[in-house]
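ingest -> validate -> predict -> emit
validate: passed (alphabet ok, no gaps, 799 aa)
predict: started
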Amino acid sequence: MKDLNDSRGGVQGTGHGHQKFSAVERFLETRLFKHRLAVLLFFIAASILMGWQASQLKPDASFAKMVPAYHPYIANYFRYENELRPLGNNIRIAVEARNGDIYSKQYLDTLKKITDEVFYIPGVDRGNLKSLWTPNVLWMEVTEGGMNAGQIIPQGFDGSPEKIAEVRANVQRSGRIGSLVASDGRSAIVHVPLLETDPDSGQRLDYGLFSERLENLIRSKYETQGVKIHIVGFAKVVGDLIEGAKAIALFFAITVALTIAVLLWYSRCLRSTAVTVLCCGLAVVWQLGIVRMLGFGLDPYSILVPFLTFAIGVSHAVQNINTMASAKLGGATNMETARLTFRQLFIPGTIALLCDAVGFSTLLVIKIGVIQELAISASVGVAVIVATKMFLLPVLMSYTGVSGACLRHQAKKSRNKHTVMRFVARFAEPKFAKCAVAAALAIYGMAFVMSRDLKIGDLDPGAPELRADSRYNKDIAFIASHYSASPDVFVVMVKTPAGECGSYPVAEAVDRFQWEMENVQGVESTTSLFSVMKKVIANVNGGDLRWQALSRNRFVTNSAQRSVPSEFYNNDCSMTPVLVFLADHKADTLTRVVQASEAFARENSTESAQFILAAGNSGIEAATNIVIRQAEITMLVLVYAIVAALVFWEFRCWRITLCIMLPLYVTSALCEAIMAKLGLGVKVATLPVIALGIGIGVDYGIYIYNRLQHFLNEGLPLKEAYFETLKTTGVAVALTGVTLALGVLTWLWSDIKFQADMGLLLVFMFLWNMVGAIIMIPSLACLLLPARRTEAGKVLQPA
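emit:
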């Protein structure tokens, strides 16, 4: 029992924080192992309850959760949501003729069937649905007798050559070529605004089900009838994300299989591997069950959390297997080794998991629903890991112990010459330490220079959440190349006194605004109420282009306004939107448009015309970029400050805190450099990675230094103490890094690009943090913590 007592003393002497925990630790240890059966019964009952709750989880995504609802831009959009619905959450269905153009009876009949089919899909705003067949899409022409107007496809259409010719003429007179009809005349669009809440049932729109209905009722059904279907829009992106996430079960199974293989290779013990995987699997079930009880669902972002929960649980459990095998090799019983494992790992493990939770919880500063739910869900995952890893696993291990094969493998490892570890331990020597620190500084300098090219927002065309060769991005590329109306629309709302939205002061200000915006790089065109009114005024004056201008005569403008589609002003004429069509939604383009719009609004807003931002898909993306830019620094400061405070509280030494925190900072800089090099912007999908990498990465340093200080307190020089640390905890930490990386490695093959991006960055951060901790902690300790021997042979560390 001497080994157990020595280990106990080593742990208790690691820092002042442990002394505060000692009473709690003794209390929990005594009762945990005294009432093992009751503990097991509690976990069984709780697991059944959580499993039942988890089974009721459903995919969940909403437009409101995907946008920064508290940002002024979004608040302005929601204020006029009903009026702006055709410009906000909508989809566009392009129906392409496979042979010939759209001017055929077969094609137009198919288009009518598709329009009718879409009309009855739940969630569609039927009053604002637009197609060549709908009565709200008209043509207008000027004749000697005045203005004529009518539906593009006339009443009594029978597909005869005369009627087809009439449709062709109506399309040309409508001005819809480039918006509803392709420039080459080979496809037409059905424009479908959506309702976030079904007015009949009161239920929120189920994007997954809506997308599935589009695929079954539109694409699959009609692509066999001589047309090809292209569908774009926010709802389709979310639907495709939900569809792609269905492969998550396969990825999770592969992750579990890889983890089992690594644990078996490391421990050579089937029973401890089975117990570890069981506990970590229960942590996932608990996490999903609690998320369901909190009223959350599984959106495309939070569906990744179970992977992290499982990987974090396994990575911490590796320390249990390592500690128990070492103690068992010394001749202790299963109960003694289980109690020792609890004793040694409760404090450092709890602190490390607290740091994980901090990394997740700081995401709450990003005021976007899906990210805040991700933060809560992941924090719940860490909390249940504390329960299953700290309490259930030691109890189960007290029954199962480790196998003879595990002990033989442990004994073999102890007789190993440890050539690699002896080399790594040399980084605790001043010469090697200086080289390592110099190399780290050089790497940091290079990363800092590269990271200056890092952008906020999307850097790719189309939907960056999906792969470039995905069906959705092919569809959006088709629409972008065949239609002049860009899918990227930035909307500025002009607020006026009621009834004054068409007045000359408003018209003059809006006209100047349009001219300013059309000269901004990245803007293709603009349109507004007054763009259409100018054409109407010219038309009623014989088509004379000299009349295509703003009029001060209120009778003229009122008459013209009655001919303008109602989507260009609200019911009481107190708001009119200005549509700015962009070449793309890249970060730089949105930044230029926002800056130009805000500058004009500051200088030109008056009581008669107040310019407020912003709506449209690009306006919402611009608001998201602004929120992320503001939250990034706040989040990083919080995560570093709180994690550093926890590490300082654990070890009560600012030098030790630096030893553990500095490698994390270098890794964060490298991560940003890699993002810049790979063309990944800082956005909703990538910003959480940095916080997760810091929170989880600090685990390595806590475990390594905890064990290192134990050997220092036994009187060993730093180099020898670190060598002993590497033989025990160091190997487990290396395996921890590999386990964490395996937990997210399968994401790289996901159809969801942002999931693959997160997986790539997390694999890098988990592995590089592990390498950084193993090499940089002894190097920094050598330079920052010069050991002094007293006459009694004890090693003192500076406070």
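The chain is about 65% helix and 10% strand.
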